[in-house]
Amino acid sequence: MKLDSLDLKILCALQADGRITKLKLAEAVNLSPSACFERMRRLEQQGLITGYHADVDLRKLLRASFIFVEVTLKTHRRVDFDRFEDHITAVPEVLECYAIGGGVDYILKMVAVDIAHYQEEIDALLEADIGIDRYFTYIVTKPVKRSLEYPVRDLLAWD
Fold first, then answer.
1. What's the pTM value of the predicted model, to 2 decimals?
2. Where would you tag: which of 58, 111, 113, 144 has the fewest CB atoms within 10 A of its CB?
3. Over the stretch 27-40, which tens digit does the pLDDT of each residue have?
4. What 3-state class would DSSP assign to 67?
């Protein structure tokens, strides 16, 4: 699909502020409100915009721990990967899961109230018999950078 500079401006503006009004968005990208809305709808229909979300500051609700977990499976057949992935997508404490090439099969980003809660979740994963052979835990001690915005313009410059 072909995108022009106005489409990119719309995507970048919506990433920065998903609650921006249609009028302010149109002003920000220098389009009429109706033309801007049509482009926005087209970007949604093409699947480039998949949703609008609130960025919740969890630290203001509770003291949570973030944990990264490397997971290696016992066996590496397609059915083994499918079983693991099907199960892991239903675990709310797993925020993100990535299949990785190299010496590790998956990296998980998890959230827990504390380390005891995290250990309960890991124990539940092991008891679920989803093929985990080994796991390594990395506890986040301090978030340094977190971004929900993709650097669209920079990435497209390499395209």
1. 0.84
2. 144
3. 999 999 999 999 99
4. strand
